## 1
Amino acid sequence: MKYLVGETEAGTAVFAINGDAAVNLTALDARVGNDLMGLINTPDLAASMSDAIAGAPSVPVASIVPALPVANPGTIICLGLNYIDHIKEGGYEVPEYPALFMRSKKSIMAAGAPMVRPTVSEKLDYEVELMVIVGKGGRHIAEEDALDHVFAYTVLNDGSVRDYQRKTHQWTPGKNFDNTGAIGPISVTPDELPVGAVGLKIESRVGDEILQSANTDDMMWSVAKTIALISVYTTLEPGDYIAMGTPPGVGHAKTPPRWLRPGETVDVEVEGIGICSSPIVDEKDFDAKVAAQ
């Protein structure tokens, strides 16, 4: 199943996507709720929706304003180094254990919403990533069982403010500016993709300019291995997000560096899932627009 959480005149709802058509699952059954958590927490409900969709009215996907797939995740865990060529372009040694960091809820936003270049820096970078939405939580999850814990896959643009990322050995500042991590809009269940979401083209672009282009086959740590490793130290919960790292081609590694600029729109795409688009705006313009609303 392909899901889109989004807003229409009737409010925020969960939609099932088939091509350019979207069926409002929340209208069919109020238990679905306003994001994916209703389906995540009630597997039988998710399974039953296929029959409910048949013959149900639909609306154009283009008429829906995307919202976050999970509005209030408990945890957002990100891999920093998961593609060999990206590790090398950043000047790092190939690690024996994944570089993990956290994102805050204020740092993320829905696909289509502005990605904000902060006042304090012009070094806003792009990072296309496969993102996992956890379905079944747990601790000490075995690698061979880990994919059973995936509810869906989506797309992340892990927008990074590079000078602030490099200020300390911990990457927290550069990865947590408000409104820099775009997620969505489409979430795809594992049965619609290759096992572990391998073999998928992953790419970022501004217009016709291809910035990154690689394949999820190139990940050092698979989805299953990543879930198992994370669950050693923390209990994963339904609705958590796990970002699987970015391939080579990021802006800070180019000569000269290629930073995102206000007025541009950056598209990040994972094959079989979809495109996450973000217009780039300056913080002062973003704040002025918010204040005027």
Note: The chain has two domains: 2-66, 76-292.
## 2
Amino acid sequence: MINNKSKYTQLIKTEAQRLGFLSCGISKAGFLEEEAPRLENWLNKQMHGEMSYMENNFDKRLNPTLLVDDAKSVISLLLNYYPSEIQNSDSYNISKYAYGQDYHFVIKEKLKELLHFIQTEIGEVSGRAFVDSAPVLDKAWAAKSGLGWIGKNSNLLTKQVGSFYFIAELIVDLDLEYDYATTDHCGSCTACIDACPTEAIVAPYVVDGSKCISYFTIELKENLPIEMKGKFDDWAFGCDVCQDVCPWNKFSKPHNEPLFNPNPEILLFTNKDWEEITDETFKKVFKNSAVKRTKLEGLKRNINFLKE
């Protein structure tokens, strides 16, 4: 006879697939023992730069039972964002994840649907949805749930899929069947370390966030450091270099989420268009995009830094 745990787990995974998620893995909620010293060390070395929010909620980051009362399971989900077309070659670059609508909203809706499905099909289940804006170590949970391994560029990598996907979680007070972590398949490859324009991957599996182009172009609110001049490889918002060179991303296939399709103008923009972008164009082209995080002022600062 099929036990309830097994039945519920299968129900959830099937529904996750129907909602368009690439994959779904489940782990037992509890303290992330291995990650604790790693996170502490990373913060002590100031590798988070000006991202002071990373210091907050240290305990909650490592223990989902502090986020959801009586949490039993962490359901990790991946959603593909790899585009079918990329930007014009004569153009400043924005990270592929920002081509379409802001993923926070797109994924939150899907997670709400999944939680509603669980509550309708299974009964009284409490839970919370998380999309990288809360103190949850997404990559650690996804790896623990067997969805991939954490690569030398500190991104989650998956065989036959690559790494161009978002990670999200539902933390629920429901016992389920748990998946096992997979093995590391980076081998002796150092493509990401060798290619990083700012040498932010300071050792295999260690990224100094305060040296990353994504940090400079999105998180840093002050002036960009002069010593980084000429090292941004034309990235005006985010950076995909360590993913673009990763051999596992040869297997990336285009997503099928219409909300992630880019505004066609983004693909046609030339450097000149970026340099002359007006408030009106910015609002129209990036209406619901993650690029709005930098505001027009921040984007112009980044572009000026690239062209000076």
Note: The mean pLDDT is 94.
## 3
Amino acid sequence: MSSLQKPVYSQLIKAEAEKLGFLFCGIAKAGFLEEEAPRLESWLQKGFHGELTYMENHFDKRLDPRLLVDGAKSVISLGLNYYSEQQQLDPEAPKISRYAFGADYHDVIKQKLFLLLNFIREQTGEVNGRAFVDSAPVLDRAWAKKAGLGWIGKNGNLISKQKGSFFFLAELIIDLELEYDVEPTQDHCGTCTRCMDACPTEAIVAPAVVDGSRCISYLTIELKNEIPQEFKGKTDNWMFGCDICQEVCPWNRFSVLHNEPAFQPPPELMAMTKADWEEITEDTFKKVFKNSAVKRTKFSGLTRNISFLKNS
């Protein structure tokens, strides 16, 4: 491909990503993530991944996308907005993270990624590539940062100066050389520590370092055993996920409402009362969360969380 074609293809890809509903799209050169290697190693050695032992696997692949896709040249990072101001009607009901209000984001984003990959192939010819949404050893935030989409905040999330942080990240890794975006050098958190101060389980142990084993999202979704007693009364009524460190972030005053129909919550979910949740049956669970990310915690996991809150 001539050097003249690279910016043309990059612009076409970004325009198509916007048409597909992505909030933003950035492109980075595929290579070894040198800065991330010691950080990831230290994080794992400290046991901050808790029971997520799979995080210890494929260390090299996490740091080099060329080991995931033969001949990888470009990592296309995409963000899909999920910000919503809708709230559960009963203020005393156990809380669900905004990202899980609607359909499972894995399914919604994968479909869009495949459409984008097909578009790239139509424009450029035979391209080898893979789509990733939380499903493989890819360091989403590191690649999004490298693609110029934002900086890693003190809460460990990627933050965009224009859009805040209520968005999902996903990637296309392809063997096509493109024009690459410049990584922003500035961190705009400054001296603010609102997220660190607000975390009820003190999971943010240092700027941009999260002890995952103390994070409410981990405790209510990923943890398969009983929630440790030390967290009684500290999970702020969250039964699936947690939005605290994003809700207190000043940059999220720039969040805009999503326009993805699939992320609209079913009315019966938002209307459930505290009593409804405490008496939930497996049939109700299957009906309300039929296409939801909440299925990840299973009925047994959700009822464990509700029971933990009730006895806190």
Note: The mean pLDDT is 95.
## 4
Amino acid sequence: MEKNHNSTLPFAHVEQNEVSLLDILLTLAENAKLLIIGSLLAGLITLGISYTLPQTFESVAVIQADQTTASLMTTAAVLDPVIAQLGLSKDESVEFVRNLLRQKIKTAVGRNDKLLTLTVSALSPEQAQAIALALLQQIYLLNRPQGSVRARLESQLIDAQARFTDAGNVAANLRKKLESSSVTAVSSNDQARGYAELLNVAALAKNQISVLQVQLEGVNEAQLVQSPTLASNATQSKKALMAVSAVLVASLFLLLFIFMRQTLRRMVKDTDAIGKLARIRSALGLK
């Protein structure tokens, strides 16, 4: 009987060291006030801070452009001239103001309408609108082909216009011959086919002219659907969301603190744990 009793001691020791669901619930119940009051206090402080933040205003512009233009909006090639033009880097470096400005610029290209929506935030409606206008003006300049690229496009445009004119003139002469009663049936059929081919050549040349003209013009004011707006009201900050997020984060940290403190208390009461801690300190050379 004594042997059986001794054999159950290790199991009893293990059961004493296990953390049950009741232990967790007990720990939460004993620290409920700290958990609730601490989390609510963090939420209230965050809510109070959100009311002290400066108001921001948004200017919105819509233009016919693709994702490439949207990506170009936040590059140094666009932002640096805007910063210099508006004098935004009086007391700070250009790099700092550039990074700050990137955070205030939002772009979105519609999947169906392919329209680029530009949204700029600033501390005043006038500043937001001025930044949006300056961004668009810089985009217009950068989208226009320059140098050898522009010369090549202009040359192609001249050739396309010449083909369109020549095809139109020849087609007009053939049409007069087709309308003449002196043309034989065989000759009429050949001239009709030639006339159709000339019309096709003229149509292709006209389409190429349109494409080349668009490429030469780039993104310009003609593609502007909505000019940058002048906001009359400040944007609504997400104060409630900020407060709720603060409550959740504070709750998480408080839970970690409570369970870590409870674990340390259990370790202090456990002689085996005390011995292990002493050995760890000795191994690390700690007193």
Note: Confidence is low (pLDDT under 50) at residues 1-17.
